[in-house]
Write a structure and sequence with these properties.
The chain has about 280 residues and is an alpha+beta fold. The protein has three domains: about 130 residues, Beta-Lactamase (2-Layer Sandwich), CATH 3.30.450; about 90 residues, Profilin-like, CATH 3.40.1840; about 50 residues, Arc Repressor Mutant, subunit A. About 40% of the residues lie in helices and about 20% in strands. The strands form two sheets. A five-stranded antiparallel β-sheet has the order 2-1-5-4-3, with helices on both faces. It has a five-stranded antiparallel β-sheet with strand order 7-6-10-9-8, sandwiched between helices. It is elongated. This is Transcriptional regulator of acetoin/glycerol metabolism.
Length: about 280
């Protein structure tokens, strides 16, 4: 990427998930001095609360690419610049890893900025994916399968990694606390109480083992005394054939993007029968 941009009056930058600039590269030495004077240097806080409207700040807040040109920037020293920024989401944990920014002088802004930032995001995401372990990939596959099945808010974790998305992030769950609850419950547990009226059904990635990761499908308990009795309702203990059937259903639902009609057709069963199976395995 640097070879392609040399001589184009372009700057590349990376910010962490909190909006702090961590790295910067310039195609020309003169740009480095200009950007330093504009207070756009490593260590600078560029999140919106600290720096107002800017490419990195908007992309970090909205979790999508953002183009800010000239006077659209809040800070006057940045009015001469055009910036396009895009978030980098970790392919395993699904959390914001940071933000990529490509900047040039405002009068030089063109569609190539979008090409450059997309190439950078794709390259970083691929590197993060390659660095993931085989176990983390299995955890991600299981996590996405349950997400596609529409089972509800899903969290997947092992001793070191937690995969969580927005609908579950609002619960404010802590990986270490969840792990302690799982270890206390043991690998044979089918459901655990998480506190604050939350309960989770447990689906180990490898049956009978916690160390390979566990999928938690979270729900809120019913009000009052009904919560405990509902949480205590046992999930049917699955035999080998039932576990195999559950695995196939989850896999097909994932391949069909959660479309139950399409999944039923591929499984060779009616939509009603599929819903019956989903209820049986507590996926609906």
């Amino acid at each position: 990427m640097a070879d392609l941009l040399t001589g184009t009056s372009t700057s590349l930058a990376l910010a962490d998930a909190d909006g702090t600039l961590t790295w910067r590269w310039e195609s020309e030495r003169t740009l480095a001095r200009e950007l330093d004077r504009a207070e756009f240097e490593p260590g600078t806080q560029v999140c919106e609360p600290s720096a107002g409207t800017n490419g990195i700040g908007v992309a970090t807040a909205n979790r999508r690419p953002s183009l800010v040109i000239g006077a659209e920037h809040y800070k006057a020293p940045w009015h001469k610049w055009a910036c396009i920024a895009a978030p980098v989401v970790h392919p395993i944990t699904r959390r914001l890893a940071g933000t990529v920014n490509v900047a040039c002088r405002a009068e030089d802004a063109n569609h190539m900025l979008q090409v450059a930032v997309r190439a950078l995001v794709d390259g970083i995401t691929a590197a993060l994916r390659d660095a993931a372990t085989a176990r983390q990939r299995r955890m991600l596959d299981a996590h996405l399968s349950f997400r596609a099945a529409g089972a509800g808010p899903v969290v997947t974790l092992d001793r070191r990694t937690m995969i969580i998305e927005d609908d579950a992030a609002e619960f404010g769950l802590d990986r270490a606390e969840l792990r302690a609850i799982l270890e206390e419950a043991g690998p044979s547990a089918s459901e655990v109480a998480l506190g604050q009226g939350l309960y989770a059904r447990l689906y180990p990635v490898a049956p009978g083992r916690l160390d390979d990761g566990v999928v938690l499908v979270i729900r809120r308990g019913l009000p009052g005394g009904q919560a405990a009795s509902h949480a205590a309702r046992p999930r049917c203990r699955l035999g080998p054939l039932e576990r195999a059937e559950l695995k196939v259903i989850i896999q097909v639902l994932a391949e069909c993007g959660g479309n139950k009609s399409e999944a039923a057709a591929r499984l060779g069963i009616s939509r009603g029968t599929l819903y019956q199976r989903l209820r049986r395995y507590h996926l609906a």
